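quick one before i forget lol
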Amino acid sequence: MYILGLNAFHGDSSACIYKNDQLILAIEEERLRRVKHWAGFPALSIRACLDAAGIDISQVDYITISRNPSANLFNKIKHTLLKVRNITSLLDRLSNTQKVVSIKSMLAKEFGVEQDAIKAEIHDVEHHRSHMASAFFVSPFEEAALLSIDGFGDFTSTMIGAGKGNQIEVFDSVIYPHSIGVYYTAITQYLGFMSYGDEYKVMGLAPYGNPQYVYKFEDILELTKDGLFKLNEKYFKHSREGVTMSWEDGYPNIEPIFSDYMVERLGPARKKGEELTQYHRDLAASAQRMTEIAIFHILDHLHKRTGLENLCVAGGVAQNSVANGKMYLQTPFKNIYIPPAATDAGTSIGSALWIYNQEQKNPRPKVMLNANLGPSFSQAEIEAMLKEKGVSFTQFSDEEINDQVADSLMDGGVVGWFKGGSEFGPRALGYRSILADPRRHDAKEILNLKIKKREPFRPFAPSILSEHVGDYFEQQEPVPFMEKVFVIRPEKRESIPAVTHVDGTGRLQSVYKDVNPKYYAMIERFFEKSGVPIVLNTSFNENEPIVNTPAEALATFTRTQMDLLVLENLVVRRGDLPSQGV
């Protein structure tokens, strides 16, 4: 039985394919279109999934879509009649809904077949149920409390429940217009970060400020006695004017959500490119702190309701790694699982598992401990590409490559690391990574100036051998997907300045020998030579989606100032590039 799971007509569009309980491939459309957070119909991802499975569209048994146009229909109509003034946003929403309804016709057109040739049953799975399924059904827990929290999906922003075995029970939800995700996006826009997905910049900026204005944000985001929350709608436009979103050529864009009242209360909004003042930094710190307070409020009540020690979290707000890192300390939960693609991309997996586990009551798949769910490339394919482009290369054993990478890092070099299948989700986790020496005080400046070209306040992440997490961090929870920020032990901060943020924290990835043995072995070799079991790890890209193919890795290497490129067991140095360019 083949199940094709889709996140379509939404940011971070994606596709996955299961053969029974075996996940064959999962990939985000942005990796193939080369447009960050690409939104629309994930046609290329679907093709990649079918190719990986060795089947055509007629052989798919079920197609699941992580969106249900019928969900919360009464609430949608009621809200529209009572509050929405902007008819354009309503028409856009209806048009988008119609696209979801006609998915089979779009597939038939894309693959040049008659609709009758597509035998698959189409299943619409509500957005937040898809999020919950994407986390719980692949978690290591037989039973767990569940939280899905993001901007909006199917008119809902937050859903709580519990999972046991192969079943999920939904307890409660928060519906439009109330949303912590929208709250955070509005503050992000107010602070001058206007691109879709810029919320992580506010999280990176927050440690430079003092959360002295939390009292202001308590008026914006109100905690409720039922363990949930509501927004003060005066600070936002969306409840009356709708959310104006566009997906021109797949580029997602959201018009400003904050209202004139927010400007009146907080002062003039920062324009894009304007200087970041201390007031801006303090607002970022205060907004982040209020977000954490709200999340812990929800989790405290969820724990009281379930009495469970295990927790699974998904949704866009689950990308707030600072809050994630404090969940164990600030709530009663003892074990926390967040999947590698907690974003909307992961709902393609969640919708497929909702049908397979929840509806069909099949046994759950194996625990998801690895994120390398995308395409991989053979050494023969890489060799052919390099020869075609006139690039010289040298083949080495794994041990020889680890020696060369360790030596290059210790000499101040920057290394592009391309091995195995690409990661599914927003983090580079040792399959499509750029590496540097965490001991160097100038490493962040080198990376920002020569390669990443991003804001200087944004931190870089440490990949650390799993058994040494407690030596460097004050917490020892598993962090396989770089989903949590922990406090670095004070006595260790000076030894790893390149991955220590201004507040003494690091967004770590704990690397396990049995999960990613090649990446682990490379870090281990660096440890043997340097005495530090950590490498600086950032995504293999340059203001673009993470590279997917060897050709994209080579192109990024060519136009930046990296020193070494590792493509499986082939190594390319700058002197190996042809003089006329690639």
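fyi The two ends are 44 Å apart (CA to CA).
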